[in-house]
């Protein structure tokens, strides 16, 4: 059975805990499967702090700070646009 698409909106607190766990699991899997360094930092509205790092946070953040394209950051707005482009490309492929 396929997964149902969900509307992107704020979710209840009890589900946000499960979402955070899923996000950290995906970060771990991505670091293993792709052999990349990942740092994930989550601040909650209640000022909670959750962190994951595949390696030393300090080392990865130093690499980011000194990287030649360190000023390129994906924001929510950028991700909305990128997602829209992906959907349009997929739609175009199915039409052709």
Automatic annotation (TrEMBL):
Keywords: DNA-binding, Nucleus, Transcription, Transcription regulation. GO terms for cellular component: nucleus. PANTHER family: MADS BOX PROTEIN (PTHR11945), MYOCYTE-SPECIFIC ENHANCER FACTOR 2 (PTHR11945:SF534). SUPFAM superfamilies: SRF-like. GO terms for biological process: positive regulation of DNA-templated transcription. InterPro entries: TF_MADSbox, TF_MADSbox_sf. It comes from the Eukaryota. GO terms for molecular function: DNA-binding transcription factor activity, RNA polymerase II-specific; protein dimerization activity; RNA polymerase II cis-regulatory region sequence-specific DNA binding. Residues 1-56 form the MADS-box domain. It is found in: Nucleus. This is SRF-type transcription factor. Signal peptide: none annotated.
